[in-house]
Amino acid sequence: MGLIGNALYYSFHPMELRAIIQWKVWHNPPHERNEKNETENQKICFKFLDKTSRSFSAVIKELHPELLIPICIFYLVLRGLDTIEDDTSIPLATKEPLLRDFKDILTQDGWTFTGNRPEEKDRELLVQFNHVITEFMNMKPEYQAIIKDITEKMGNGMADYAIKAENDDASVKTKKEYDLYCFYVAGLVGEGLTRLFVEAGFGNPALLKRPNLHKSMGLFLQKTNIIRDVREDFDDNRRFWPQEIWSNHVDNFEDLFKPEHLDAALNCSSEMVLNALEHAEECLFYLAGMREQSVFNFCAIPQSMAIATMELCFRNPDIFKRNIKITKGDACDLMHKSTQNLSVLCDTFRQYTRKIHKKNTPKDPNFLKISIVCGQIEKFIETIFPTQSADAANRKVSGEATAAELQRKREEDENKKDVYFMMALMGVIVVVVASIMIFAAWMMGARFDLAFKEITSGNFRPPVKSQLEHPEL
Amino acid sequence: MSAKRRTLELGNVLVVGGCGFLGWHIVDHLLNFPSETDPSYALPKPVGDARFEYPTLGSRYPDYHSTVSVVDLRTTNNRLPGAKYYDGDITSVDSMLEVFRAVKPDLVIHTASPSMIEGNKPLLHKVNVEGTRTLLEVAGGEHGDWGGKCKAFVYTSSSSVVHDTQSDLKNVNEEWPYIRGPAQKEYYSETKADAEELVLKYNKKSPNEMLTAAIRPAGIHGEKDTTVTHKILEHGSQASDRVLRMQLGENDNLFDFTYVGNVAYGHLLAAHRLLASYDLVAAGKGGPLDYERVDGEAFNITNDSPVYFWDVTRAMWALINRVVEPEQVWALPEGLLETVGGIAETVMGLFGKTPRLTARTVRYSCMTRYYSTEKAKRRLAYLPVVPLDEGIARAVGYIVAQKQADAGKKTL
């Protein structure tokens, strides 16, 4: 869209423009990166962060200084790993040991890799990976250990997957396999981040005892991407939708993209959304464990974007035709709402949950199941932010008033008093002004005595001028 | 679904009202589902339709060990093989004593109540309040020895005891107060509250120190349901497309519906805990701790899946192939409808009739009404075994198949 196109679009979508302006003008980052104190090497790492990630770089850069470098490096390490895995030009014999040993590479000073094909988009990161390694070695040993551990788990997971892809069919069969795949690509990141948050004192340590919570955080995001990108992945010859789900609706995966199977495809996509929405409750639960604003923002923004994307994809035939995205205005609005507190975020979740529910159709075999999962999200929000209480109900029955009600009553009484006072004041002003006017009129010779006499005898109108009766000709 | 099923020992059980809707299901549970194992007692269900295929109940609910007797006003209908049936009237001491002498129960499950719709005020009071009192006193041994000692008494209350049938209820637990007197617009709920209070206060008070508990189901449905499901399907099959598309309110209101089998399960879990507590105390090992106590307590039992009110009705209609798509819905604002309903009621009231649309039905379909089952989950280890969507399919399937069978009979 050019400038004119944009102008036209936003003149019909003023709310979106408003959200964008609000975000640009009013968003106050909890922390800002201080470039002056950064080393040359750190600056290079941030440059790579900007290059490799579109969505994450902004939120990472607003993180608390304690975690700014560790999370930036964590991201770059995983991106490096990903760049090796994605490259189909690297033979398995080279790829497998690289993936499995990547954790040791992190401590090999000066390691770089030039084996990627030229068209690999993040090739340069590995060519200059020595900068990442330098920064990794400068970090606290506790953070190093966490990142190393996750790198090992993920590297092994990727290697296993690569072997499976080489030897037989790597398509995802069961829902369990689907969850496992999502766990390797996203759930593990969630684990690493959670451990970093807790280590830094920014997350409730109880989060570590409930691994299903951070697992859900990762799975919710990954599943959203998989639903949204179905067409793009299909064109790249990748399919992540599990057979256990699509086979309920179509005979062949390709049928999802054929117009004659649209109804089945939509039902299939809604079963995918249902499967993803089952994580939403645990995501909110997880976010309740965040103890620092920048970390909360960092986690909440992708989650709210995910539920909005889910709403956009739900029963939308376009997902089978092209890549769809939430609008920039909506994105700004979501970012604004994700950088306040859990209560505002929950309202956003509820709002999108209801939008999904409103699109749910009884002809879908999972109609009621989707309604149930939406209800569950709403009920969960009610449990963390209750709007009713047994105490209030008991007091209502016993007729007692609460402190808050008493306070309200007092305020109402005060307001009433204020209103009466204002009315009295107005009355006084009217009387004073009227007296001054009457006095002025009298000084100028007004004959109130005559006027009064006329009125008492019933003549409310001034006498008609006689000259009108005898017009001069 | 657990691989290994639990066993619940319940001893000699008397199910009061065991030929009613819920009572029948409790008996079916206690007898380990003759409705599934004995073809001559099988419930009708549509064949060859995948929407009505579901796993058996027997494979998911516990294995019950018990001797089952039933007392009801009339026991000719809704019988199951393996239970003994007695005709009796809970409002009569003599009638109850006779049954107790014959059965000598360890456990009484009291489900008898006139339905909310058919019951007139004197009848509701007589059966729900006086009948429950009589039954308690007979079971407790106050009207003389009947040759045994009843250890436990479980009462079917109603989640409506804390509801004025007007306000919204969100995730309400058992600490909410009873609504009675002028605030209670539904006399049925008032009598259920009175009876529940009687039952809970009677805990450990009788000569035989019988333990008591109450179960409060919400929006109960399932096979043999003659109220909720029946009414929704009646509208669904008779209304024109245009009428079917009408929706009262915004449909953002969450509502609890509970499958009858889960309600039966809740009763039996509570009964099992009461019996265990009784035996502990009798063996001199002391009672349960306060936070795990079941005796003298009431429990909400729901499917723990509140859903948007109109979604349930539309899901039911879809099962009889009347689909209302979201874009076809014509949502009528509640405020307007309440006025219309009110006027309709007044005008038609002059002719002694009740309109289909009343202010009360409008509010009922626009209100939020769901409960917390945390207490039952914690203290009874309750879980809604049959999910809501299956429960709805079971309820609808039963009526659909029954209608088909009736139609078959007519053509013969």
From TrEMBL, chain A:
Transmembrane portions of the chain: 419-443
Keyword Glycoprotein: no
Pathway the protein takes part in: Terpene metabolism; lanosterol biosynthesis; lanosterol from farnesyl diphosphate: step 1/3
CDD domains (alphabetical): Trans_IPPS_HH (cd00683)
GO MF assignments: D-glucose transmembrane transporter activity; squalene synthase [NAD(P)H] activity
Family, as annotated: Belongs to the phytoene/squalene synthase family.
Full protein name: Squalene synthase
Organism: Penicillium rubens (strain ATCC 28089 / DSM 1075 / NRRL 1951 / Wisconsin 54-1255) (Penicillium chrysogenum)
Highest classification ranks of the organism: Eukaryota, Fungi, Dikarya, Ascomycota, Pezizomycotina
Automatic annotation (TrEMBL), chain B:
GO molecular function: 3-beta-hydroxysteroid dehydrogenase [NAD(P)+]/C4-decarboxylase activity
Organism: Penicillium chrysogenum
Family: Belongs to the 3-beta-HSD family.
Name recorded for this polypeptide: Sterol-4-alpha-carboxylate 3-dehydrogenase ERG26, decarboxylating
Organism lineage: Eukaryota, Fungi, Dikarya, Ascomycota, Pezizomycotina
Pfam families xrefs: 3Beta_HSD
This protein's record includes keyword Cell membrane: no
Subunit structure as annotated in this protein's UniProt entry: Heterotetramer of ERG25, ERG26, ERG27 and ERG28. ERG28 acts as a scaffold to tether ERG27 and other 4,4-demethylation-related enzymes, forming a demethylation enzyme complex, in the endoplasmic reticulum.
Major localisation: endoplasmic reticulum
